[in-house]
Amino acid sequence: MWGIYRALVFALVAASSFTPVRVLEFCQSTDPDCHSHDTASDVQPSPEAVKSRWSRNVSNVIHDLDEFKVSCKKLMEAFPLDEVDGNFVRTVKNCLFSKSFPTPLKGPLRLAAVSKDVIEGILDLDMALTQSDDFLQYVSGGKLLPGSEPLAHRYGGHQFGYWAGQLGDGRAHFLGQYSNRKGEIWELQLKGSGKTPYSRSGDGRAVIRSSVREFLCSEAMHFLGVPTSRAASLIVSEEPVVRDQFYNGNMKTERGAVVLRLAKSWFRIGSLEILAQSGEIDLLRTLLNFIIGEHFSHISSSDPDKYLVFYSTVVNETAHLIAQWMSVGFAHGVCNTDNFSLLSITIDYGPFGFMEPYDPNFVPNTSDDEGRYSVGAQAQVGMFNLEKLLAALSPVLTVKQQKQAKIILKGYADLYHMRIHQIFKAKLGLLGEDEDDSDLIAFLLKMMEDTRADFTMTFRQLSEVSAEQLHDMNFTQMWALDDLSTHEHFSDWLNMYLLRLSRQQNDTDLDRQQRMTNVNPRYVLRNWMAEAAIRKAEMNDFSEVELLHHILSSPFVTQETAEEAGYAARPPLWAKRLKVSCSS
Ligand SMILES: *[C@@H]1O[C@H](CO)[C@@H](O)[C@H](O)[C@H]1NC(C)=O
Ligand SMILES: *[C@@H]1O[C@H](CO)[C@@H](O)[C@H](O)[C@H]1NC(C)=O
Ligand SMILES: *[C@@H]1O[C@H](CO)[C@@H](O)[C@H](O)[C@H]1NC(C)=O
Ligand SMILES: *[C@@H]1O[C@H](CO)[C@@H](O)[C@H](O)[C@H]1NC(C)=O
Ligand SMILES: *[C@@H]1O[C@H](CO)[C@@H](O)[C@H](O)[C@H]1NC(C)=O
Ligand SMILES: *[C@@H]1O[C@H](CO)[C@@H](O)[C@H](O)[C@H]1NC(C)=O
Question: Domains of the chain: which residue ranges?
Answer without folding.
Answer: 3-42+271-422, 61-266
